[in-house]
Here is the input.
Amino acid sequence: MDTTQNCDTDGKDQASGSIGTVMSGHSSVKIRLEEALLLASGILRKMDAGWNAEIERLEQLQKRLGESRFHLAVLGQFKRGKSTLLNALLGEDVLPSAVVPLTAVPTLIVYGETRRVQLMFRDGNSQSFCFESPDKIRAFLREKATEEGNPVNRLGLDSITIQYPSPILSKGVVLIDTPGIGSTYEHNTKTTIDFLSRCDAAVFLVSADPPITQAEVDFLKKVGSVVPTLLFVLNKTDYLLPDELGMALSFLKQVLVKYGFSGRERIFCVSARSGLLARQRDDLNLWTESGMAEFYDYMVNFLASEKNRALYRSVLKRTENVIADISLRLELMRKALEMPLEDIDKRLAMLEVKLVEAEQQRQITGDLIQGEHRRAIELLEELVSELNRKVVDQVRGIVEEAVDSAQSSQEVERLARCRLNESIPQIFNDALVSISGAIRGRVESVLSTQRETGMAILDSVRRATAEVFNISYVPPEALEVFGIKEEPFWITDNARFTLNPLPVGWADRLLSKQARIARVKRRLTEEVETVIARNVENLRFAMLQSIDSSFNRFVLTFNEQLDGTLLVIRDAIREIRSKKTAANQVVKEEVSRVDSFAAEIRKVSDLLERLRLDYGG
Here is the structure.
């Protein structure tokens, strides 16, 4: 969590110009990476069809670079100004605001060239609508995304996605408008908490009218450890005098310290209303004075870039490895072109022995990984089976306690349901942490060991090639271990742990009190065991998917690298052998052609080297 704070009410001087000018710049690192990828792809397309595999690798990196996203949720109590803050960031009055709680479901706002709204329903269906203006979007959302138009989410929406052509969104930021917390609509607060695990950071919005409330404090205690970065925004500062603003800040810090925060959390003082007006007027001075300029700059130029930094370094490293493979193939072709055909065949036979050994080692490693994969699944099954027994015993104990303390069958049912609805979510959350921790330790330990083996195989192939053909040695790209993800997808609106009341039939009324209690106890136990079985299976399935993904992605990455290296070597030799059988003039022309392409690829390599040095990679 960020530990600095800033609330400069005087603002900061900025270069003159429009707000659009300030917001329009893209990450220079991303641009330079895109240029390098496009340049390399263009060079390969000028060669021949034998380079399709390398072109595809470069295109995959371009795609990965273009899909980077930073998810920022805006949290706050009803009427703190969440929608106005988001509208100020977007630059237009897109989201509705009113005198009733607004958002019934999470609303994601992503970049798009056209204005579009997509409704996602709990049953998996979706509907998409295009709009010409923000006014029409706002009217549509009032019908679908507010408690006024969609009370208690009776439409069965799961989420809403808005595509919008806004500068902040073009930088890869996804804004998320969450249901208001602490309102009379308790389901809104629950939906917000459930959604936060998907976010990279969250902004907690408060204001001085009134100061932070107990409901907000209670919510903060729940989300403090859920999101990686939590920022605070004190809104509506334009209503406060300087000394009043100081008092409001001091009070907020005291509350944060009281409830376990450091008191050094980053707090931005803004007027979202003035910020929106500034965007609509393209008034850079008002934008700065509103506090929104500094808030925007921190989000886009620090938070989002921090997440993208890891992505850019990964893409840069992978691009360098693709270029290194291309250079290896060109150097190998150049060297072989100068050799007599007999010498090429002799060296190729020597190298082929090494390549066959690598293939055999790959098979052995694959068998070992497959066995460890199977044992990880067996461990999961053991843990899940133990969990099921443990939870059933706990639930039976809760029901027994309700029976012992209740005075009637109706009270048994009410009390038991109340305690079960409180206990079961926590039981499964704790179970997820425990099981994922055990599985993660097992999987990451196994794959770390296999990574060393895989790197040794890849290295042996490259070293053998360099030695046999007397060319430069290029080390292989480091294999990545993909860890277990702790994503509780089993907690959704479609699979909540809430138990519905059981109807009391006429036969129940004819039974004695003791018999009625026994009947209620039996029905409760049967129902809750069904709920447990369903959610144990949901947890099991989520973890099984994660285990499969970790092993499969590792094997896929290893095989792709080894196959790529083998393909580079064998294709280069095969191509040269075919050309060596041609006339000497053709061979000379091919040498010149290879030298020309190699020179162009070196330029790309130099570009990437400068980028790595500038970027501190």
